[in-house]
Design goal:
The protein has 327 residues and is α/β, with parallel strands linked by helices. It has an eight-stranded parallel β-barrel with strand order 3-4-5-6-7-8-9-10, surrounded by five helices. It has a two-stranded antiparallel ribbon with strand order 1-2. Helix 6 packs parallel to helix 7, helix 7 packs parallel to helix 8 and helix 11 packs across helix 13. The chain is 47% helix and 15% strand.
């Protein structure tokens, strides 16, 4: 699949997730087989007006070659500001820019941004057009099925956005009203794919290699994006990559889970520092240990950990208990 002038390989993509798809997560998912990744969303206006040495901005823009192909996701509603932002960001090493027209969070849609743009197709088109003219990097868009069940307009939006210069469109098969609840409507993804000539990425309810293959089969989409199913489970990209190659997939052992979680924590420390990273890592550790024996007790203990040494002692102690029980 090509995203404008960017060639990507087979496999699923890591979807953008606020507070999750930072450099550390993207690196792990790329190593496991993700075809490409999209960053956490960043405010175009915030980037333009915040001090350039702002820690939050530095973290959002942190990038290295070990992540593979990465798109930087921006949100905003002013075409001129969105264009100015990509113009200034084009030299930072991201392969493409993604426009967030899917975020359902109240603080985002309350400003007319994110999925609120599903209600303003003409403005959405002007944003994409302005950005495409301001950079030689591909501009892509992530949309939803619509604002609510009474306004399913993903097909019309996709056609307009493609006409305005979008090089790829990702479709989350839920409405903004659904948030992340209920089932994703894959038929909307199919209809978008049939309506546009640019690559279409399907998103929503892909939790396994079997789901990924079924979405591609039922919708005809060019690739699938995995979001929440990758939280604490970067191996889902390995599972999907194995399916593409016709190889058997072996799920991670408890030791592999623990050691990958600790590596994730170390990568996060390199990004955010020894003080902030252990606190942010708590949610990731809970995801990594989900479904393992005694995980509810472990989750409670994780909330008390405030440094890397304590995290290592807790997880290796837990692992030792598991291995002794199985011996």
């Amino acid at each position: 699949m090509r995203i404008g002038n960017v060639q990507v390989g087979q496999g699923a993509a890591l979807a953008p997730m606020a507070g999750v798809s930072d450099r550390s997560m993207r690196r792990l998912c790329h190593e496991m087989g993700a075809a490409f990744c999209v960053s956490e969303m960043m405010s175009a206006k915030g980037f333009l007006y915040a001090p350039r040495d702002c820690r939050a901005t530095r973290e959002l823009l942190a990038r290295d070659d070990a992540e593979g192909i990465v798109g930087l996701q921006l949100f905003g509603r002013e075409p001129a500001l969105m264009a100015e932002a990509v113009g200034q960001l084009s030299g930072l090493g991201f392969e493409f820019f993604d426009v967030n027209m899917g975020c359902p969070a109240h603080k985002i849609v309350g400003n007319g941004e994110g999925s609120a743009l599903m209600k303003e197709p003409e403005l959405a088109g002007r944003i994409v057009s302005a950005m495409a003219k301001a950079t030689d990097k591909p501009v892509t868009v992530k949309i939803r099925a619509g604002w609510d069940e009474q306004s399913i307009n993903a097909v019309e939006m996709a056609k307009r956005l493609a006409d305005c210069g979008a090089a790829m469109i990702t479709v989350h098969g839920r409405t903004r009203e659904q948030q992340y609840l209920g089932r994703a409507d894959w038929d909307v993804i199919r209809r978008v794919k049939e309506a546009v000539s640019v690559p279409v990425v399907g998103n929503g309810d892909v939790r396994s290699a079997a789901d990924e293959a079924r979405m591609r089969r039922e919708t005809g989409c060019d690739a699938c994006a995995v979001g929440r199913a990758a939280q604490g489970n970067p191996w889902i990209f390995q599972e999907i990559a194995c399916a593409y190659r016709g190889e058997a997939y072996t799920p991670p052992t408890p030791r592999e889970r623990v050691e990958t979680a600790l590596r994730h924590a170390q990568l996060l420390c390199e990004l955010k520092g020894e003080k902030a990273a252990p606190l942010e890592m708590r949610k990731h550790l809970a995801w990594y240990m989900q479904g393992m024996r005694g995980c509810s007790r472990l989750r409670a203990a994780i909330q008390q950990v405030s440094d890397m040494q304590g995290m290592r002692e807790l997880l290796y102690g837990y692992l030792k208990e598991l291995e002794e029980e199985e011996a």
